[in-house]
């Protein structure tokens, strides 16, 4: 009797506790909590859950409310009510700032959200209109058919999982593996066809990369298939949450791998293209672009992975932007050098292996990096020039010359007879014509003036090769031929000196050199030297 009195006394308290959970649509948190709470097994009151649907008859509203939860459960979307805002006038700052609305899962399910109507929050009209389509996507037509044909034995429970679910999971995995094998072959065939249409060749290295690219594409197709079919197995929300989290992580990793391999394929094709171009600055651009796009893919993939774990990437990017701005202000020189690098690759003032004059630096360009350019001087020393400075100073690119000009003066002794001066000039001209590395249609060899201690013969020639080393070798052969010509003609080169001449000295002959000005001897000497030079330096 005493126990009955206690029960009668406590019954109103239990009823009051049950009534304390009431329909509340005052803010996003209250509306979503009301919807989900009254559809739980231990508090199942679908009529109250249907209050979150605006403007529909009760029966239709109940159906819509149940399907919204089933879609969320089927995709493994666990709603953390503690993160839902309680602000009655909440505005989503991600893209809906002009409306009072809250999207539960902006990345994975953007079509399901609540919005403020008058002073209360309901599931949006767009959500209600699209829920049938979303439901059919998550639970295709064959799900209800399977439920009808599954025998009673198929509902036997093993560790909380029914037998038909285990069989369905096994069939899904087998079909996924078959899809993997088929898609891998198809993907490689299509990629190879596309690559052949673009490059018109079959590069073995590119084919290897294409095979590696086809592998993650087939894995993506398999993961997409499992993602599509797995909700049909109707596992619990907890199982779906972990399975779809794993699937989304796997898909993101596969996409990262696909884009990394795609970058590798594009860079392989681009490197083949740059090898065919004249300049080598494009060759230097290949590793820089490869590093840049690889970093871009990795950063984007990391941000995607963070969103799967509930990290707000918008806030993260905003913080990174502010931090990046502060870092940029603290490292202005680095930023200036990066901009200078971009300008160098856009303007292309020089190419790799070009001989340039940039201020006090003269040498061959070896490498253009993100921060600086490496130039090797003639004495093999290396200059590292910041790209910001290199993009601002005047650059004389001798590598872009059509020919290498060489100009010098040869000094003959003042006592050289006019006939030998003419013969020497004529011989030098013929040597230049016979030289395989000089332009025979553009040169100058003339007696141009009287120096302090020599008669000046100007030699102006153009070498065909733009390489500095070949130019020096060409000069060497030209100089040797000129020295031989002078020796053969008996012409002496002058050097700074002071000559004291005593015209009459007892019993002594004059110190004047003896010159042979015989025309036949002169022509024979010129022909001999030019003939020997032509034999030693045949046309290339």
Automatic annotation (TrEMBL):
<keyword id="KW-1003">Cell membrane</keyword>
<dbReference type="Pfam" id="PF00924">
    <property type="entry name" value="MS_channel_2nd"/>
</dbReference>
<dbReference type="InterPro" id="IPR011066">
    <property type="entry name" value="MscS_channel_C_sf"/>
</dbReference>
<dbReference type="InterPro" id="IPR011014">
    <property type="entry name" value="MscS_channel_TM-2"/>
</dbReference>
<dbReference type="GO" id="GO:0005886">
    <property type="term" value="C:plasma membrane"/>
</dbReference>
<dbReference type="GO" id="GO:0008381">
    <property type="term" value="F:mechanosensitive monoatomic ion channel activity"/>
</dbReference>
<feature type="transmembrane region" description="Helical">
    <location>
        <begin position="309"/>
        <end position="330"/>
    </location>
</feature>
<feature type="domain" description="Mechanosensitive ion channel MscS">
    <location>
        <begin position="333"/>
        <end position="397"/>
    </location>
</feature>
<dbReference type="InterPro" id="IPR006685">
    <property type="entry name" value="MscS_channel_2nd"/>
</dbReference>
<feature type="domain" description="Mechanosensitive ion channel MscS C-terminal">
    <location>
        <begin position="408"/>
        <end position="490"/>
    </location>
</feature>
<dbReference type="InterPro" id="IPR049278">
    <property type="entry name" value="MS_channel_C"/>
</dbReference>
<keyword id="KW-0472">Membrane</keyword>
<feature type="transmembrane region" description="Helical">
    <location>
        <begin position="284"/>
        <end position="303"/>
    </location>
</feature>
<keyword id="KW-0732">Signal</keyword>
<keyword id="KW-1133">Transmembrane helix</keyword>
<dbReference type="Pfam" id="PF21082">
    <property type="entry name" value="MS_channel_3rd"/>
</dbReference>
<dbReference type="InterPro" id="IPR010920">
    <property type="entry name" value="LSM_dom_sf"/>
</dbReference>
<protein>
    <submittedName>
        <fullName>Mechanosensitive ion channel family protein</fullName>
    </submittedName>
</protein>
<keyword id="KW-0812">Transmembrane</keyword>
<dbReference type="InterPro" id="IPR023408">
    <property type="entry name" value="MscS_beta-dom_sf"/>
</dbReference>
<feature type="signal peptide">
    <location>
        <begin position="1"/>
        <end position="17"/>
    </location>
</feature>
<feature type="transmembrane region" description="Helical">
    <location>
        <begin position="242"/>
        <end position="263"/>
    </location>
</feature>
<feature type="transmembrane region" description="Helical">
    <location>
        <begin position="163"/>
        <end position="183"/>
    </location>
</feature>
<comment type="similarity">
    <text>Belongs to the MscS (TC 1.A.23) family.</text>
</comment>
<dbReference type="InterPro" id="IPR045042">
    <property type="entry name" value="YnaI-like"/>
</dbReference>
């Amino acid at each position: 009797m005493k126990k009955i009195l206690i029960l009668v006394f406590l019954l109103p308290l239990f009823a009051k506790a049950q009534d304390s959970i009431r329909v509340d649509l005052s803010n996003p948190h209250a509306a979503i909590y009301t919807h989900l709470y009254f559809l739980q097994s231990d508090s199942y009151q679908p009529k109250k859950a249907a209050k979150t649907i605006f403007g529909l008859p009760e029966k239709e509203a109940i159906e819509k409310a149940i399907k919204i939860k089933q879609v969320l459960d089927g995709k493994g979307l666990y709603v953390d009510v503690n993160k839902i805002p309680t602000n009655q006038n909440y505005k989503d700052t991600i893209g809906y700032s002009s409306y009072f609305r809250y999207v539960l899962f902006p990345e994975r399910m953007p079509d399901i959200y609540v919005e403020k109507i008058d002073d209360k929050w309901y599931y949006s009209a767009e959500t209600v209109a699209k829920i049938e389509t979303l439901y059919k996507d998550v639970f295709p037509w064959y799900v209800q058919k399977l439920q009808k044909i599954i025998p009673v034995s198929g509902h036997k429970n093993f560790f909380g999982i029914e037998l038909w679910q285990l069989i369905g999971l096994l069939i899904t995995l087998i079909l996924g593996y078959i899809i993997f094998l088929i898609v891998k072959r198809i993907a490689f065939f299509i990629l190879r066809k596309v690559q052949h249409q673009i490059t018109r060749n079959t590069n073995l290295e590119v084919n290897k990369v294409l095979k590696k690219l086809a592998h993650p594409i087939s894995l993506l197709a398999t993961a997409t298939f499992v993602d599509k079919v797995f909700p049909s197995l109707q596992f619990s929300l907890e199982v779906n949450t972990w399975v779809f989290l794993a699937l989304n992580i796997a898909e993101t990793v596969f996409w990262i791998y696909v884009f990394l391999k795609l970058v590798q394929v594009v860079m392989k094709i681009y490197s083949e293209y740059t090898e065919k171009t004249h300049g080598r600055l494009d060759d230097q651009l290949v590793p820089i672009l490869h590093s840049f796009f690889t970093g871009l893919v990795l950063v984007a993939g990391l941000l995607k992975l963070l969103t799967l774990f509930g990290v707000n990437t918008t806030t993260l990017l905003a913080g990174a932007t502010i931090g990046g701005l502060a870092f940029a202000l603290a490292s202005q020189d680095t930023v200036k050098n990066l901009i200078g690098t971009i300008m160098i690759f856009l303007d292309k003032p020089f190419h790799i292996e070009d001989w340039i004059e940039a201020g006090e630096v003269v040498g061959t360009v070896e490498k253009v990096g993100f921060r600086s350019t490496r130039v090797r001087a003639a004495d093999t020393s290396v200059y590292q020039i910041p790209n910001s400075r290199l993009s601002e100073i005047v650059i004389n690119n001798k590598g872009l010359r059509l020919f290498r000009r060489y100009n010098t003066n040869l000094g003959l002794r003042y006592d050289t007879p006019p006939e030998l001066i003419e013969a020497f000039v004529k011989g030098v001209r013929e040597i230049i014509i016979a030289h395989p590395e000089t332009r025979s249609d553009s040169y100058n060899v003339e007696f141009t003036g009287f120096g302090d201690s020599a008669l000046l013969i100007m030699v102006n020639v153009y070498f065909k090769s733009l390489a500095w080393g070949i130019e020096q070798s060409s000069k060497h052969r030209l100089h040797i031929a000129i020295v031989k010509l002078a020796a053969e003609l008996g012409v002496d080169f002058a050097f700074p000196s002071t000559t004291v001449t005593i015209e009459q000295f007892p019993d002594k002959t004059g110190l004047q050199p003896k010159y042979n000005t015989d025309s036949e001897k002169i022509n024979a000497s010129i022909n001999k030297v030019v003939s020997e030079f032509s034999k030693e330096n045949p046309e290339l």
